[in-house]
Write a structure and sequence with these properties.
The protein is of the alpha+beta class and 178 residues long. The protein has two domains: 120 residues, NADH Oxidase, CATH 3.40.109.10; 34 residues. The chain has seven helices and five strands, in the order ββααααβαβαβα. The chain has a five-stranded antiparallel beta sheet, with helices on both faces. α1 runs antiparallel to α4. The radius of gyration is 18 Å and the shape is globular. The termini are far apart. 26% of the residues are buried.
């Protein structure tokens, strides 16, 4: 446990504890995907190509995500990701205020930069935190005591990329004086 700016970093590497948190993550995935409004919003973003897909694949993804409850599939996938992660990091605070959330974000930024410098992958997982009843359960499973979970992150070493996601053409993102 490390504390900075009233934000405590809990590092979890015990397999049973990771499995327990992974099971809660699976429940959160299932609950979110069961909500048609959530699927519609997610479908919108998938359809914009925000995940790097071609226009055609983005539109197929949008249709699938918007109209089918894929919660059990996502839940199983994320349970495995959490179980296999060398470490789960949880940032928690003693207050749930806008200031505490901003400080949490600042600590997360520093953690992410440090991890990147050490070639450690960072994967935020917010589904549990978006459901108040699960957030409380996460605190119990992670052993944070009275501290309130603010940010859940998988940490691990990244496999070398075999393919890259599509990039915008350089000319479309450069500012010119024309």
């Amino acid at each position: 446990m490390i504390k900075e700016d009233d934000v405590t970093l809990h590092l979890i590497d015990e397999p049973e504890q990771k499995r327990s948190i992974g099971e809660l993550q699976a429940e959160a995935d299932e609950a979110q995907m069961a909500d048609p409004a959530y699927r519609k919003e997610l479908g919108y973003w998938v359809g914009t190509g925000a995940l790097g897909s071609s226009w055609f694949m983005a539109r197929i993804g949008q249709a699938v995500v918007s109209h089918f409850d894929l919660g059990d599939r996502e839940g199983r996938k994320n349970l495995k990701l959490i179980e296999r992660a060398p470490v789960i990091a949880l940032l928690a605070t003693h207050a749930d205020t806008p200031t505490a959330r901003v400080k949490t974000g600042q600590v997360f930024e520093r953690l992410a930069f440090l991890a990147s410098a050490e070639d450690i992958g960072v994967h935020p997982m917010s589904q549990i935190l978006e459901r108040p009843e699960m957030r409380t359960e996460l605190a119990a499973r992670a052993g944070t005591g009275e501290a309130i979970p603010q940010h859940l992150i998988r940490l691990g070493y990244v496999e070398e990329e075999r393919t890259h996601t599509p990039r915008w053409p350089l000319g479309s993102v450069l500012l010119t004086d024309h």
